[in-house]
Amino acid sequence: MYNKQTWLDEIPDMTRPILDSSGKQKTDPQTGRPLFELVQAGTRITSNRLNTMEGGIESAHTLLEKLAKEMGGNFVAVIDGLMGLVCSAEGLKASWTAGVAYVGGRRYEITAGEMALNPTQGQYLYVDIDGVVKKTTSQATAKAGLLLFYVVTDTSGVISTSDQRVNLSIQEAYEVALEAKQLGNERKADVVAALIAMGISASTSDTWSQLITKMKGVVRAKGNANPSDVREGKSFSNSERVDIVGTLPERTTGTLTITPGGSTKTHPAGIYGGDIIVPSVVVPADKVLEGTIIAGTEGTIPNRGVGGTVTPNTTNQTKTKGNYETDIVILGDANLKAANIKKGVKVFDITGTLDLGLLPGTQTLYEYPSPRSFSSTTPTPTYRIRTNYAGTYRVSCSLNNSPSGESIGSQVYTQTYVNGVARGNKYAASTQYPTYLTEDIAVNAGDVIELYAYGTNSIYGGFIGYFKIGVSDITTTLLG
């Protein structure tokens, strides 16, 4: 599209000559004409503006050549005396020939084609603004593009048709051509007037090439600055325009201090009137994780990975210093209590209160040789002995299944408890022949030693016999 340029004459104030330091009137170094203060600055003549006019004139001539054969606006062009896009309809199908269409000022070369029609309907064929032949029942929609054809159908074929194409007369094309030529002459006159206003001899009889040559002698602004390069509110000129106002904002008039933080700080583009200072940051490397860089300093704290689990034993265990991704778990034990530690012995911060007293031995303190039967399927006490002295007692017994239980593969179990809490190992038997068991159990004075038993089959159960308690001193009370 041609962009019209409004040209202004240079109007000097003949009463205000421009003087040099000696009081003599200055002259234009290019033309030698006297210089005066300006009432109005004239539009600068540049090769870019002249080339724009040249291009516009060339485009106008090209268009005029086409308009000698074609038409303007929304119309079907006449080429070599023939108007294309001839439409016809048969059955429920419409077709058209090839042709040139102008829609919304744009030229489209339409190829021949066809499309199905809707039954029992009045419909328009038209060229839309995208250059595609379409159909619609709306006359307003069709007229917004280039209307070609109207057809009315019944259930199986065409009832009536109407050619809706339009074209432009040769007289109209001629008048458009004259208007374009006149426009070109007016622009040429504007250029001549601008050159004369600057003291350069020019005439409308000059060719455009001659006028361009004269314009090259005019001193014009140079440079490639843009508004975003120049301080806001200040004006400048470049090779394309004059009196351009800068848009680059002034952000500060003095020193700007930026304190580093945990997030990025952005200061927008602009003019900063003083130094931009970013204070230095001292980062102790031994306080930063290895592989992490803060203000140029890389950390030295090693990454140890998973914290893991520490099980206390008889020697110190050291977890090397560093960063652990998970908690370090120090295992505890519910049995770590004073009552389970030998009296006077300190384990960690717990001092034992367990008086070992008697030691296990072969002297029988209590014996019940006859077997006791049981049939429970959950741990149930069969013998209970209260101790009068602290010490370690040797507990022994025999365990066996019933003959019937053995035949079906049932299991029987026994385990030593102290005060209702399992203390000894759990033993098992699966035959009718006794299995003999012995183990030493440490207790405090007054503790109750119990022998629990149970089986997997409540019908057949099992037997415990030869129950004995052996210590170094006879100090017990039979409870049952």
Topology:
Elements: E1 11-17, E2 36-40, H1 47-67, E3 75-76, E4 78-79, E5 82-83, E6 87-90, E7 93-96, E8 99-103, E9 106-110, E10 113-116, E11 122-127, E12 133-136, H2 139-144, E13 146-153, E14 158-163, H3 170-197, H4 208-216, E15 235-236, E16 244-245, E17 250-252, E18 256-257, E19 271-272, E20 276-277, E21 293-294, E22 297-298, E23 303-305, E24 309-310, E25 323-324, E26 329-330, E27 346-347, E28 350-351, E29 360-368, E30 372-374, E31 380-387, E32 391-401, H5 403-408, E33 412-418, E34 421-429, E35 435-443, E36 448-455, E37 462-471, E38 476-478
Parallel strand pairs: 17-19, 18-20, 23-25, 24-26
Antiparallel strand pairs: 1-2, 3-8, 4-5, 6-7, 7-10, 8-9, 11-12, 11-13, 13-14, 15-16, 21-22, 27-28, 29-37, 30-37, 31-36, 31-38, 32-35, 32-37, 33-34, 33-36
Helix pairs in contact: 1-3, 3-4
